[in-house]
Amino acid sequence: MFQRFRRTRLNKHLRSLVRETQVNVEDFIYPLFIRSGKGIKTEVASMPGVFQMSIDEILKECEVLKELGIYSILLFGIPDTKDSIGSDALCEHGIIASSIRAIKAVHPDMFIVTDLCFCEYTDHGHCGIIDETRETVNNDATLEISGEQALIHAKAGADMIAPSGMMDGIIETLREALDKAGYENLPIMAYSTKFASGYYGPFRDVAESSPSFGDRASYQMDPANRREAISESVSDELQGADILMVKPALAYLDLVREIKDATSLPMAVYNVSGEYAMLKHAGNANLIDYDRVVMETMVAFKRAGANIIISYHAKEVAKMLKSTK
Ligand code: PBG
Ligand code: ZN
Question: pTM score, two decimals?
C-alpha cells in the first residue's frame, strides 16, 4: 500500500473549512452580580472588568450584552441582610426575585438562569442550613428550603434554575417542587460535578460569600476523585437534570470529556473566577497575548465536549468573534 508521510499543508481558507471545533457567541452564559441601590457599579479588585451592580445598571448592561449577541445571563444576588437561613433568597422581594422581574420587564428576550444556593444569603457563608452538632450543612433541611427558593425564582420569571450547593438529592427535590407547582417545563442545569476548589477565591470576594468557619469540603467534591466525579453527574442525570456541569473548567477537562461520554445530556463548563483572574492579571502585566490565550482556552472547552461556557470572558470573546468576521 502506498503511504505518504508528508501531510499536505493547508492554506488558511481550507484550515478554517476543516476546523473541528467552533466557538460561537451563542455558547456563552454571562454571570452578573446584583445588589440593591441605585447607580452602583463597583469593580472587583481581584477581577478587573467584573462589577457588582445595582438593578438599574444591570438593565443597561443587558442592553450592551444584547448588542454583542449575548442573550443568556446567570444571576447572583448580594442581599442587604444575611441571616442563618438566608431569608432574602426565600422572599418574593429579595434581591434575586426583584432583579428577575425588573430584567424581564425591560428585556423579555433575555434568558435568565438563576444560581440557586444559600452561601450569598447566610451570615455564616455556607451553602445551606448549618447543623449545629456536626458543624456542617444539614443536607435534608437545606433541600426543603431549596425547593422554596426554586419557586421564588420560577414565579419571578426565571428561564432556568441552576442549583450550585452540591446537596445530595437536590435535582429530584427541585424537579418535584417545580412540577407540582406547574413548572414542569422549567429546565434545571445541575452544578453536577463541582469540586472543592481554590479557584473560587475571587468569586467569594465579589459575592461576599466566604464561609465564616470551616470550608465546603464536606459537600463539594475532592479534586482527586475521578470516578466519584462521573457518578455525581450520572446521578443528576437520573434525577432529571437537563444540563450537567463541570466546575471549575480548566483543570478538569478530562472529566468534561468523560462525563460527556458517560451521559446523554448537554454539558456546561463553569470557567470560574480564579481562572478568569489568572488570565486577566497575566494579560494586564503583558505576560501573555491575552486575546489569543482567551480564545485558545474557549476552544479547549468546546473540544473537550462543552456545549455551554459560563464565563466572565464572554463579552470579550463576543467582541473578538465580531472582529474576525
Ligand atoms: C455558590 C457558587 C460559587 C461559585 C458559583 N456558585 C462559589 C462557591 O461554591 O464557593 C463559584 C464561581 C466562580 O468562582 O466564579 N455556591
Ligand atoms: Zn453556595
Answer: 0.96
